[in-house]
Amino acid sequence: MSEEFKVEIVNPEKSFLSKENVTEVVVPAFEGEMGILKDHISIISFLKPGIIKVCSKSDETKYFVEDGIVEFKDNNLSILTSSIYNISDLDSNKVDQILNEAKEESKQANIDDQKKYLIDQKIEVLKNLSVN
Considering the chain, what is the average pLDDT of its residues? Predict the structure, then answer.
């Protein structure tokens, strides 16, 4: 019996990723990192800034995501996000640019606690990201 399921990641520009042979996906949900395997219970959750890890039998790919919604139902995982980057495509200049924008955003006087938490989370993930 196959242990694989389908994942689709969509952002405003396009269908970012569609993959049929996925064995596990780890997402940065608000509740904490959530690992999803075939036959996981149905869920809907919000994403916080972090790393999505998509695993198949042959490889593992990591993506930096800033926000989004994740839904798993009937062995189909859908991730809707406004901003996602394949970590292997990121260079240190792009990471520095995103990090500096986040730092500037966190300095705004009229920022609420939830927004501040998400920006701080984004900054922490970007600081720990190792890219070429």
Answer: 93
